[in-house]
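User: Predict the complex with 16G.
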Amino acid sequence: MAHFQEVSKRSTLHSKPAGLVLQYGTAGFRTNAKHLDHIMFRMGLVATLRSKKTKAAIGVMVTASHNPEEDNGVKLIDPMGEMLTAAWEGHATHLANVEQQELPSVLEDMIEKESIDMSQEAVVFVGKDTRSSSDSLSQAVLDGVHALHGHSKDYGLVTTPQLHYMVRCHNTQGLYGEATVEGYYSKLCQAFIELTKNTPNRTDDQKHLTVDGANGIGALKVREMEHHLKRELQVSLFNHGDGQLNHQCGADFVKVQQKLPTGIKVNTGERCCSFDGDGDRIVYYYTSSDGRFHLLDGDKIATLISTFLKELLIQAGLNLKLAVVQTAYANGSSTHYLEDSMKVIVRCTKTGVKHLHHAAQEFDTGVYFEANGHGTVLFSKAAEEKIKQLADDPNTDDTRKRAALLLRHTINVINQTVGDAISDMLLIEAILALKGMTVQQWDAIYTDLPNRQLKVKVSERRVVDTADAERRAVSPAGLQDAIDGLVKKYRHARSFVRPSGTEDVVRVYAEADTQESADSLAHEVSLAVYRLAGGVGDEPKPLH
Ligand code: 16G
Ligand code: MG
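Assistant: Here is the predicted structure with 16G placed in the model:
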């Protein structure tokens, strides 16, 4: 175990608090930053082994996304820029929780189980968000990489999707793009400018967008990118770092509170969007003259993008299978609109980006979005090839050629590795420009069913087990029957419950024809969870 001497030596500088047990959750480790130093060091070790195993660069992003400033976390990125494969989440959790002196033997086991060739070179890319704890935590990751003699590249401050992008660029030998932040801006912005070239009558109003940067890394990066956009998109940036990260601003706040973030100045009817703390989520919104707040969430974004792509595929005469992937949280109106009016295939998966991503990979063109604003579009290799051939073929007629070229630029504006607020923003802005559509017209494509989300504290959330992409509860006994009975009392109603993957609660979702009905259904279902699944504390109270 000679190669672990360095690990043993350095690990003493990153000691594990006694008794602390953490899990690689839906999107990596996440908790108060002061508990994370040893996790970071150990994730440096895991990433190095994963790099040796896959013979490719692996990414480690230090961020806690939309959590408060005092938290932090870490996400691992696999060779094609996707999230760490589920098979290795177990290794990550195991290594995170063993006592210091066991580290060498656990590493030895992992190496044997995974047949890792330790003479293989390793490369780990590291990035971090703007949290004050991120500096030292990313140093701890680098320490872990170096303890196993891996090579590292420290990208410093980047958004999560930018780091995913770098990993893919490197591992495709530049085929996906140049693995630098400048390379990222120039690929995306050039594609955006090519797309908007086709909209000569675009007004200054249409070129203007208000962005809430959540006081996070996304804001810094929009600033850095701006000059590449050559004033084809003019951003008024708020919450650019002058306030507290994610505090009363950002995509999560806007989505959950259904109101404007603090710290932005905006006129009635103007198009705005909010990023989250690490720039992988986006939602749009505006206020109408009656003072009402209108949210355009991931479902509305998926509808806009899939409608646009479907029209282009038809114009191009390309017979490619297009699907939209959602979760149970998708508003019922969006699913109906997509299936019945748009006639696109809709798939539902469990919550968590990795599940949507995998489902989208099954199609030529897979648009995936969670209602909370995390999503992107994936194109199969064959689809990209067909689009390229058509665009390059001198015999293609004008209509088909125009559509093929627009599809090609669309592919280039998209970050196919993971949901990306900057890339999604550019794509949405280009689509609105090409369609000559206002945010109000986009909003009017369908009307959301009123809905409510609640959470119930129980003594053990795992007693709730679900099936059918979390739409049905299979345990505890009687819970699903109770939900079915309650749903029947309301019009256009739907409800489901699931154990959270990130918090110690059971989540409840309900939608119905009116807000009052959605609220009372959500309350009644919460009571059923409380009574049948071991609720703790006070019984849930009615909302009104
Ligand atoms: C994580 C997931 C997000 C999901 C959320 C659900 C990623 C990158 N993030 O934040 O997609 O919606 O968890 O949280 O996968 P919950 O299980 O607590 O409801
Ligand atoms: Mg995020």
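The mean pLDDT is 96.
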